[in-house]
Amino acid sequence: MISSMTGYASLTRELYRVSLAAELKSVNGRFLDIQFRLADELRSTEPRLRELIAARVNRGKVECRMAILPLADAAPRLAVSETLVAALGAAAARIRAAIPDSQPLRAADVLRWPGVLSEDAPAAASLDDAAVALLTDVLKEFAATREREGGKLKAMLLERADRMQAMLVQLQPRLPEAIAAYQEKLAARLREALGGSDDERVRQEIALYGVKIDVTEELNRLGAHLQEVRRVLATGGASGKRLDFLAQELNREANTLGSKMVSKELSDASLEFKLLIEQMREQVQNIE
Length: 288
Fold this sequence. Notes:
Blueprint: E1 7-15, E2 18-27, E3 32-38, H1 46-56, E4 60-70, E5 78-80, H2 82-98, H3 107-112, E6 117-119, H4 124-194, H5 199-213, H6 216-235, H7 240-259, H8 264-284
Parallel strand pairs: 3-4
Antiparallel strand pairs: 1-2, 2-4, 5-6
Helix pairs in contact: 1-4, 4-5, 4-6, 4-8, 6-7, 7-8
C-alpha cells in the first residue's frame, strides 16, 4: 500500500478508576521525527513507545500525546500505610511508658502524619503496560488512516500519469511532420538570407539544426519515467523519495522539450506537461 505522511488517530481506555487517552498525528517531513507529550507518570515508558512508532512509521513528523484523566464517577480511594501506623503506635507507647501523663496518640494525629495516607492508584508497571497496549491499537488505526489517504494520492498520481501518457501517444506520430515543416520554413529563410545560392550550405545548416530540435529522445524518456512511476505505485511501501526523484526527472525532460519547441503544439504540450508534473510533485511530498 501507498501511505500518506498525514494521519490522525486517538483512543481512550478506562484503567482502574482513571482514563488513559492516546493521540497520534503526523504531517509530512523528510525524515522520521517523533515528539512526545506524556503525563509525568508515563515518562519512563517513552523508549518503548518510541520503538513501537519507529517500527510502523518510516517518515514524517509524528506527535504522540498520552494523558491520564480521572473518571468522573470514580470515588477516590485512600490507602493507609499499615507499617507506618504500627511504627507510630509503637513510638507512642514508648513515649507514654517514659512519660505516663502524656496524651495518648489520636487517630486524627496519625492520619495527618506524612506518608500515612495516599491515594490508591495503579502501579507504575501496570500503567506502562497499558500505555504500550493502547498505543499498539492506536497505531493500527493510524496506519489505516495513512493508507486511505495514500490510496487517494495514488489515484491522483495515476490519473496525471495517464494524461501525460495520452499526450505522448498523440505527439509522437506528429513529431516528424512538425520537424519537417519547421525545417522547410528555416530553409526558406536561409535561402532568402543567402540570396538563393549555396544550397549545400543550407542543407548542412538544416541537418545540424534538425538534430538539435529533435525531441524524440525526450519523449521516450518521459514515457520511461511514467512507466517507472506506475511500477513504484504498484509496488507500494515507502516510495515517497523514489517518486520525488522521478518527478524531478520528468520535470527535467519537460523543460528540455520546451527549449526545443518547433511548433505551437509542442510548446503547448510542454506547458501542459510541466503543469501536470508540478501537481504530481506537490502530492508526492505527502507520500511516505
